[in-house]
Request: fold
Amino acid sequence: MSITSKLRHYLIGDPLNPFSPNMLRHVSLIAFLAWVGLGADGLSSSCYGPEEAYIALGVHTHLALYIAIAMAATVFIISLGYNQVIELFPSGGGGYKVATQLLGPYIGLISGAALIVDYVLTIAVSIASGADALFSLLPHYCLPYKLLLEAILIMFLIGLNIRGMKESIKLLLPIFLGFIITHICLIIYGIGAHSQGLLTIIPHTIAQTKHSIALLGSVPVIALTLHAYSLGSGTYTGLEAVSNNVNRLSEPRVRTGKWTMFYMAISLSFMAAGITLLYLLWNAKPNEAETLNAIVFHSILGDSLLGHIILGVTLVLEAGLLFVAANTGFLAGPSVLANMALDNWVPNRFRHLSSRLIIQNGVLVFGFSALLILFLCKGEVSLLVILYSINVFITFSLCLLGLSVYWAKKRSSASSRWLFRLFFSIFAFIITSIILAITLYSKFESGGWVTILITCAVIGTCLLINRHYQSVNQKLAQLDAQLKQPITEKHIHHVDLDPQQPTAVILVGKNLGVGMHTLLCILRIFPQHFKNFIFLSVGSVDVESFSGEESLKDMREKVEETLQYFVNYCQQYSIAAESYVAFGTDPVEKLSEMAEQIGEKYPNCIFFASKLIFEHDNWVTRILHNETPNTLQRQLHLQGKELVILPMKI
Reply:
């Protein structure tokens, strides 16, 4: 084993067999682990979401009570909405798939593009916020190294997630549980220690609200409350992640997904509302040197040595949870990218799985995109939060609008619950749309326009990619129809193969027309030369085929059916032929292994493959289309074998 292989084995681990009976169970998540891996994003925003809302109230802090109640209620409303998504789309896809199937592909594209940008920003803002929490405990002369630490942390998370989803969650589990335990204890103790204040807080808030209305008017007070409420909207992020990854949950998936959403709703609403209430009870006053959480926890714990130790541990765990939340971007983001690749909005390579059954290309793209944004924003959390807080509510609103349309169309359904679900979806859509509108209005000039610009750029790029794929697929479909020949069973003659005779080994892909083009070219260029024809194919296990046992079975049958067609076609004309098939996540690796076996059995063999040739070939077409023939040619040349690539102009 080479040094590179040993290093890869040590860092990433052994390849996983997607056809192992226990493999789906091995990589799937139970509700508790899904809550840890996918719920950290929402919980981490309680470190800055309530603070944003509270500071926006200015001197009218008594309104924080209404915001605390609204936060808890909104979390449950959105969670219940996404429970419907889990029921209707148990194969995953979340807001992207809901918008695509219920509102149309272009609305789905908007939702998907918003999610891509949002998950990149999830990684960036979580890492930056966590680093800020850590460096608040360190001397000021350490600040120049903060950006370097953030880059190192992102690289660490990239490596961790390439190793596996379950593995990354288990490693980060102690941080998550530590955060939950310390913050629940502090919230309960902080409220209990001010029991007298808690008893008087409701009448005091009502009296102060009446005074504010008399002084300012009801409209400004409502506007101020809604403005602060929308600025804390980051608290609700992360709820989307579960519906995106239902296919990664353990069976029964719908039930596991609903339990995960329940855990997330309970924990998130308690944290967000509880911390906001602590600000109000302990009269927290913001300053530039500390976060509002640090200030209020310091007030609760006091200045004793034990209090300082607990405060330090709490802040370190907050920073740790923010790093766990960054991991949510790596877990959920590549799944969105993979689902969009299935619909040809992004390059097909984003649907491929690595040997560890991870969407490795997606992990790398999200990681390096987050690195780029961090460096461009210089790790400024205030700017990143502005960029971050818009797109998630675009997806929320489109998803809930899709559910509203779905239940409106199901009004004749025999189910008696359609009317309740319709009104609930409309109500939730109105709430998320109001938050989106206020957030856009209040943050557009201060940096929100950048998010809209980036999202529009992603949408434009996806439209161009989809247009290219549609054009190529139309031409390939026409080729399939033109070159597919009828097979008559009575004309099939089984001819024995002679291993010593010249043999043509043809690589067959998904398109029958491409394989037939290769076969006909060989017969035309080398008439009567080859006596044996061998057809090779690799069933690629990607996001679509790995969604369940039935999907894997269907993929197997389709690949084997295509190969059998070519064998039957040759035997119909009394040509000796047979086929070989393998399945895996890396087609080049599997084809290389099969080529070695075939080369031993048929010493006089030459390998053939077709490659799409475009009139304007450039780096873009090389990204959009798999370069398997070129890569395999190099591998076979190293083995001393010949691979002829036949051009196929599109």
